[in-house]
């Protein structure tokens, strides 16, 4: 894994309600609701989430590694789900596998960004799901340090299985 550039800033504009539906879905899961996750932006490619450090602090005063892993998993799941919704497809989305690297402690609120991995193609993913009823895509995510760079990097494959 390597540090990738930060997602461009974007306001959480939500004209079709997709981000509100995603936020509702996150809140519908009790463990996720307890994380106090907020959707900070989505530009059609990159989803940005945040959560207060106070909800995720460990015994060293920095962000708990499990919280960082969970937030990157949720952001990655969310970006896949948003692309499926935009394509008008209903599918169950699962994380197939993931790899995480902890690069530096994070002593600030959690800010996570997720997007398709370099070389991954949303059009191919959507077409494969339509044709085969199942598709997978590589996603990358990271937790930003306030001074720039990444505290944590995440790479995963997500699988979508079409609903009948």
TrEMBL record:
Domain Thioesterase putative, by residue range, is 28-161
Q: Name one Pfam family in it.
A: YiiD_C
What superkingdom heads the lineage? Bacteria
* Protein name per its UniProtKB record: Thioesterase
Q: Which organism is it from?
A: Marilutibacter aestuarii
Kindly list the organism's lineage: Bacteria, Pseudomonadati, Pseudomonadota, Gammaproteobacteria, Lysobacterales
